Amino acid sequence: MSQISSSIAETEQIARADAAADAPADAKNVRRAALAGLIGTMLENYDFVIYGTASALIFSKLFFPTISPAAGIIAAFGAYAIGFLARPLGGLFFSHYGEKFGRKWVLVTTLFLMGGATFAIGCLPTYETAGIWAPLLLVLCRFFQGFGAGAEQSGGATLLTETAPLGQRGRLSSLIMVGAAFGTALGAIAWIGVQRLPDDMLMSWGWRAIFWSSILVTIAAFVIRLKLAESPVFTELKKKVDVRNQAPLRVVAKHGKKSVIKVILMNWGVSTQSYTYQVFMISYLINVVGVDTHFVPPVQLAAAIAASFAAFLTGSLSDRFGRRRMTLALTGILVVTPFIVFPGLNTGSPVLITAIIVFGYMVAAQGVTGVHMSFFPEIFGSRYRYAGVTLGREFSSIIGGGIAPLLCASLLAWYGNSWIPVAIYMAVTMLVSFLATYSLPETLDRDLNTPTDAEWGEARPSRAQL
């Protein structure tokens, strides 16, 4: 009898979930949330790409001309790194207000902070006209860029996951990473275009035009986000809890600490491999393999475009097969592939190199994160979801992508240009992410109004299991 009762209960649970999935949703607001998330992360990545490229190409001459060229590049990249250091601080700050005042208004604020800082960089005086104030203002603008970006992807993923109807969370939330890939592609296109200018035009106003162009995306995203409705989950939470008088960071530290640690570990290997493919391997190809520098930008552009499709595909598949199963499959592949990738790069074959970089962008940079965009919000309870996702993602970026290129370059130098230690580092961090994912329950279409974190048996069975 107990087995029969259990089967009946399970059938009723599936029926209720199916009924909820078929319930009408505000299609207009879902579309706005999806477009707002896509454009927001597109702006974020566009800002980072154009700044990173400018740091490599011209900022050492414009803002650090009194030191050697090599030291100037290091100084320019040091200013670039300030943005990564500012991200966790921005995540801490904005997630606090995202839990108290809502997801929508925080996303409007971070949008203006990122877009305004990027536009301001285009207005900065150079060292020739302002002296030491020029690099100081550059660092300040870069800090505000990172500070705003610290809550952007997590906030967009949280709002979109909480807004999307059942059965579509993975597909719609993956648009956050589609936007990130588009931003990377647009940044590459912008620099490919402006580099066609004569050098004097590039150094006088060409580089400024790229930074000014971000204001167009900022305005478009602002109009869309201003019309957004607040997350229905947050609206429901306000009816039950006095959110304005709670301390969300204290709440997540008390009740969601274990889940935050698991998200940090889940994202550690993914962030590590993402920045290894996007940053370190480009340096490896040029300095070790001997690839022509003009070969790299078109490959990166093709890889970014392919990655946008990969993010949407993996997010959509997670709606069918489950978040946990998809993440385990992708991270499992990435544990093994580093030992195949480097011998392939070392062949020097343009076709093989292109295929490897495209694979890295598609699977490591966007494929797994396309699933994470719905997986992470579903892990946390409604009381501190925004804070939990933000803390987990941003702190993992410090121990992952924040140090990955530097550590990979150091390993390469210490071991006489041997790629094996780098591959081991990539594999070990991804193995940690695989095991952390394995320890978590499936979260597919769980009730996001539940105040507690995900538990085993709570999620809706995947369609592949029905």
Quickly describe the structure.
By secondary structure, this protein is an all-alpha fold. The protein contains 22 helices and no strands.
Largest sheet: none
**Helix percent band:** over 70%
Q: Count of DSSP E strands?
A: 0
| First-to-last CA distance | 23 Å
Radius of gyration: 22 Å
Provide the structure class: mainly alpha
Mean pLDDT value: 81
- Which stretches of 5+ consecutive residues score pLDDT under 50? 1-24
Order of helices and strands: HHHHHHHHHHHHHHHHHHHHHH
Proportion of β residues?
Answer: under 5%
Q: Based on Cα principal axes, name the global outline.
A: globular
- Helices, by number, come to 22
Pfam family, one: MFS_1
InterPro entries: MFS, MFS_dom, MFS_trans_sf, Sugar_transporter_CS
Main location: membrane
Keywords: Cell membrane, Membrane, Transmembrane, Transmembrane helix, Transport
Report on this model:
Helix 15 (257-289) packs across helix 21 (404-414). The protein starts with a helix and ends in a 28-residue tail after the last helix. It contains 22 helices and no strands. It has 466 residues and is mainly alpha-helical.
